[in-house]
Amino acid sequence: MRKPLSPDSENKTESAPDSARVPLAIEDYLSAGIMALLALITFANVLVRYFSNQSFAWTEEISVFLMIVLALVAGSGAFARARHIRIEYFLQRCSISNQKRLNELTTLLGVLMFAILAVLSARLVWDDIQFQETSPGIGVPQWWYSIWLPAIATVITLRLFGLWLRLRRQK
User: pTM of the prediction?
Assistant: First the structure.
């Protein structure tokens, strides 16, 4: 059986995920911080609801926003480590050289997809600003929430491009 050719395979090469120029721990710390903030907000809301039969109106809106940001930040870390979702069944049935080509192709397609997402979501932010959209729950400007999508999509694009460069250098 052929060994899969990926940066997280057992025989680490110079293109291992740890060789990224920007530390991968950034996404790890951000993810942990966001999860802690989510737990704190939810716990505070439960306590207030238990003792007063009221709830903070803003917690649901902020929690949904934080969960979306958490998914994107954690996804960025997964992409940078080449642990994103892919169909290993087909990849492992290819020769080593074809595995390398498929890894490079799927990474480039990811770069393209997240670059398009960054551009289109930036247009969404511009619309939110231009039309002065407000959030449904607490009435703050909607762009406060939507600005993070193009920003994180750009980070994911750069992480994927870095992964593609590391895969190109892999022997």
Answer: 0.82
pLDDT tens for the chain, residues 1 to 171? 445 544 544 434 334 445 778 888 999 999 999 999 999 999 998 999 899 988 787 888 999 999 999 999 999 999 888 888 777 888 888 999 899 999 999 999 999 999 999 999 999 999 999 999 999 888 999 999 999 999 999 999 999 999 999 999 986
The CA distance from 6 to 134, in Å, is 44
Q: Which residue has the tokens 């449904």?
A: 136
Alpha-carbon distance 3 to 99, whole Å? Answer: 10
Please state, in angstroms and rounded to a whole number, the distance separating the CA atoms of residues 26 and 24: 5
> Which two tokens mark 147?
């600005």
How many other CB atoms sit within 10 Å of the CB of residue 114?
24
Query: Which helix H or strand E contains 122, and what residues bound it?
Result: helix 96-130
Q: Could you count the other beta carbons within 10 Å of the beta carbon of residue 10? A: 6
Dihedral angle of Cα 138, 142, 145, 147, to the nearest 10 degrees: -160
The span from the CA of 36 to the CA of 23, in Å, is 21
Which tokens go with 65?
A: 């926003």
